[in-house]
Amino acid sequence: MDRTFSWVLQLLFACAALALVLADDPIPKTAAEKLKKLLFTENEYDRTIRPSEETNPTTVLFGLTITHFSVCDANSRLTVNGWSRLNWEDQKMRWNPDNYSGLKALHVPYNELWIPDVVLYNSAIGNKIDQHGMTYSIVYNNGSVLWVPPSIYQAVCKMDLRFWPFDRQSCKIVIGSWTHHIGQIKLQPWTTWRESEILIPNDEWDLVNVDEQLNEKKYDCCEELYADITYTLTLQRRSEVYKTLIMTPVFVIIILSLSAFLLPTHAGEKIVLNSITAIIITYLLYDAGQRLPAIASNPPLIVLYFGSCLLMTAIAFFESTLVIKISRNYGAHPLPPFIKQALSGWFGSFILNGQNSQVQKKANDEELSSKVQAETSTLEFNREWIMFASALDRIFFIVYALIYLIKIISFYVTVL
C-alpha cells in the first residue's frame, strides 16, 4: 500500500515538472513582435522627445484633403472635415528588413510614437487642441513615418455679410507646431488640395478655390520664428433658395406698397394694405435677425433695404390716413388758392392725368347765378379736396416707384 502511494506521488511530481517545462517554452514570436521589442523596449524609445539631434530640425510634411465643410454665420465659424497627412523621419525607427523576415513596415498606435504637435492656430474651440483621430501610423524601415488621421478643424472665420445672401467669403485654416520653432520642426506643405479629391458637397456653399501658403512668423512670446501653413478657402453662397425666400417678398412689398396709392382716396383699404405690408417687412427683418449674427459694422444691404422699406411704409401709412381724412371731412372749406393754382396748371394735368377739370370749371364758371353757386359751393369744395388728395397719391406713387427702382438697380449693380 505504501509502495503504491509512493508511485502515485512520483507520477504527480513528474506531471508537474513536465508542465513547468512546457510553460517555460513560449510560443515563437513573430517578426513584428521581435522588431517592436527591439525598437521600443531594448532601445528605450521615449515618445516625448523629438527623434533628432537638437541641432538638426525635423522636417514634417503636412497635407490636407478636404472631404466636407460647413459654415455657421451666427458663430462666424468654419468647420472642415478631412484627412491630415503627416510625414517625418524618426531616426530611432530604423532596421534591416533582412533580419526580420523582410518586414519593411510596422503599424504602430499613435500614442506610442513621437507625434509632431501640429494644431490649428485659429481654433474656435480654444480648450480643445486635439483635432486628429486616434489612428495607427505606418513606420518604414528607413525611419520614415506616415500618419493619416481623420481630422475636424473648427476655425474662426471673419464673415463679411454685406452682400448676403449673394456673398462670397474667404476663410483661413492656419496650422502649425504649437511649441517647436523652425529650428526644431521644419514644417513643409506636402501636396496641394485637388478638386479630384473626395469631397462631399455642401448644400449651401460652393468651394470655389483653396490656396496654400507657408509662412514664418515671430510672436511676442518668443524670439524664434514659427512656421505655419495657411489654407485660404474661397466660398460662394448658393443663392437659388434665397432668391425665393428673400427676393420674392421684395417684389411683393413693392407691389403692395404702390397699390395702396392706386386705391380711391376715400377707401379704407389703403390702411389695411399698408398694415399688411408693414407686417410682412417686420417678419422678414425678424427672420433675417434669426439667420444672421449681430453685426456692428457693414450690415447686409438686404437688411438695410427692408429697414428703409418699413420706414417708407410708415410714411405711406400716414399719407393714406391724411388722404382719407381730406377726402371725407374737408368739403366745407375751399382749397387754398396756391394749391388750386398748381392743380389748374400743367403740373395738375400731369399728375391728375386731365382729371383737374373740376378745379378749372370752378375757376371759369362765371355764368351761374349766385344762388346756384351757393347751393353747389359745398360740392365744388369737396371735389377740389378730392382732387388734391388724388394728387398726393399720384405724387407719392411716382416718388416711391422711382425710389424702389433706384434701390433695385443699385443693389444688383453692387452685388453682381
TrEMBL record:
Residues 34-238 form the Neurotransmitter-gated ion-channel ligand-binding domain. It is a multi-pass membrane protein. The chain crosses the membrane at residues 245-264, 271-289, 301-318, 395-415. Residues 247-370 form the Neurotransmitter-gated ion-channel transmembrane domain. Gene3D superfamilies: Neurotransmitter-gated ion-channel ligand-binding domain, Neurotransmitter-gated ion-channel transmembrane domain. One of its GO terms (molecular function) is transmembrane signaling receptor activity. GO terms for cellular component: postsynaptic membrane. It is found in: Synaptic cell membrane. Its main location: membrane. The keyword Ion transport applies. PROSITE patterns: PROKAR_LIPOPROTEIN. Belongs to the ligand-gated ion channel (TC 1.A.9) family. Acetylcholine receptor (TC 1.A.9.1) subfamily. This is Neurotransmitter-gated ion-channel ligand-binding domain-containing protein.
